[in-house]
Amino acid sequence: MRKLLRVEILLMGVVFFCLASAQSRGQQPQSQSPKQPSAVHTAPSSSEGEKRFQANCGRCHQAPQDLSPREVKAVVRHMRVKAMLSAEDEQLILKYLAP
Amino acid sequence: MLKKISLLLLLALSGAVKISAQSDTPVITGGLQYESTTSGGVTTMQPVIEPVVLIPLGDHWLIETRATFDEFIFREDGTSGPYHAQTFSTVDYLQLDYIVNSHLTVVVGRFLTPFGIYNERLYPVWLRNFQDVPIIFPIGNLTTASSDGAMIRGALISRKDVEVNYTAFFSTLSTVNRFESGRAGGGRVGVFLPQKRLEVGVSYEKLLQDQRQNSVGAHFAWQPYSAPLDLKAEYAHSRNGQGYWAEAGYRFSQFRGEDSWLGRFQAIGRVQQFEKGTASPIDGLPGANTRQVDFGLNYYLPHNVRLNTSYGRQFSPLGNSNIWNFEVTYRFLFPLIPGGHN
Q: What is the pTM of this model?
């Protein structure tokens, strides 16, 4: 049990180290291409659709790399129900993924 | 009754494919996985396919279904003897959604029981950081992790800085093959801060059969913008026991970008603890107090392929054991109707 406790403390230490280093790095601006949707965990850009994507979908998913416009509606509708997105979120994310 | 509902949904599904050819394109997506597990020295292999079919209809309707087909391959005497295989298939959900507005969506059919966040959001093989489900997963999902009945869900408050979401459901007892469920009711309420990507919430389920027991749960999820960090935790309690799991994932994308060889790695860790309550032969929980710690390394290959590796150590009065896992997972997505890119 002591060993397990040590491992847990070590794990928490790693998490806090990552958080601390991330806070300092997170203050630097990051540039992103609007054509190439950034993947999970990146900072929000100026695009409102990308912001909504990162805030909601980006918590679990990477932005799809090869999603065709005709496939987008079904995927976003599915996520609207699962993630309880608003109508506005759905429209903005649709425009972002299939401009 | 349930057979009729299922038949109607299937008929609607097949008809909808034709209708939607003129409006919205239905898609088939999901995951394909090969998993190898060595637990306590016994190795098993498990190929899994989880297809999801999505059929949007107009601006308010969606038919969606997910099934799981897996084969469990094992040796006759655990570590020796000839290999045997058992095949399983389940319908995880087959539901019709009607989106009334941002505050209300009505769901009927078979759906994932909305208790905690693991079952609805993290269960698919292409989303899990660790391939083993948490020890406390059966709490709140006592019969199966799916329910047959109706559910309402939506956002009570939906603003840029805060969202309050909810689900409420009722499920009927079903013994229909592949559509099994228990008679139960419950719901979940969550508060989500989009600008922090922080969510907390609570869940409740009352089983309306057998011992009519209550299950309660709480969840936490945080994916800070400032770091490629993924933190999640759940707590659940019922008369069969209580426990928690806490998981952290760190993607090395900060150093050379997420498409670099280093940025494709993700380090993961998880701790779990379970305290046994009143034992029940059908609770699906360990027979004694259990603690477990897991570490792993995932690698995200191009074209939606991911490699997962993990090592876990389980501590239990029934015997400690090592758990090794290796998986390769492919996430696919295709339109159901042939056509051009646009």
A: 0.83
